[in-house]
């Protein structure tokens, strides 16, 4: 793997953080318009089924799967494509905890989560992003490692969810900073926004 440039890391941060703040601000404003007798607490599922399937738009972009194993505890699986390094498949798996709902009313529940997990970048044989060649994104950067077809890392996701009561739909935004551990130790920035439908 070739070392990520500062511009690539900055772009990943912007992709991840911008929707996170936008979603939190918008949903807090909507909740403030509800009557004061709306429920004060609610589980992250809001009465829906435990299995959610949807999309993630960000870094990476792809499919998102969430499975609740308890009312406020879940596993998240992501299968995506790396927009920064290109030609790379990315698999993420996290365990997340929803400590408490931020706000709840008759229409939706706004909650947040924190967790721990891992990320695995995978490059197929014959890809363009190879340590033997110059960086395809920034050609001036020379190879910095031996050929590595996988790149594991650890991450700590932090995010917000809006769960609708009348629809089994969840809108979410997440930022997942972390550390790549092979073939070199580097900062990892993943996240974005998306939606899941629950059964």
Secondary structure topology:
Blueprint lengths: L5 H27 L18 E9 L1 E10 L2 E9 L7 E9 L3 E4 L3 E15 L27 E6 L2 E7 L4 E12 L5 E13 L1
Antiparallel strand pairs: 1-2, 1-10, 2-3, 3-4, 4-6, 5-6, 6-7, 6-8, 7-9, 8-9, 9-10
Order of helices and strands: HEEEEEEEEEE
Main β-sheet, in a few words?
Answer: 10 strands, antiparallel
Q: What is the percentage of strand-forming residues? A: over 45%
CATH architecture: Beta Barrel
Given the C-alpha coordinates, what overall shape results? elongated
The radius of gyration is 18 Å
Give the C-level CATH assignment: Mainly Beta
Number of domains: 1
Estimate the mean pLDDT confidence: 78
Share of residues in helices: 10-25%
Task: Indicate the structural class.
Answer: mainly beta
CATH topology: Porin
Please tally the β strands and state the result: 10
**Terminal residue distance:** 39 Å
- What is the subunit arrangement here? single chain
Number of helices: 1
Extract low-pLDDT stretches.
1-6, 20-41
Please, could you describe this protein's structure?
The structure is a single chain. The termini are far apart. Strands 1, 2, 3, 4, 5, 6, 7, 8, 9 and 10 form a ten-stranded antiparallel β-sheet that branches. This protein is mostly beta strands and 199 residues long. The chain has one helix spanning 6-32, and strands at residues 51-59, 61-70, 73-81, 89-97, 101-104, 108-122, 150-155, 158-164, 169-180, 186-198. Mean pLDDT is 78; it is low at 1-6 and 20-41.
Would you kindly provide a brief summary of this structure?
The chain has 199 residues and is mainly beta. The chain has one helix at residues 6-32, and strands spanning 51-59, 61-70, 73-81, 89-97, 101-104, 108-122, 150-155, 158-164, 169-180, 186-198.
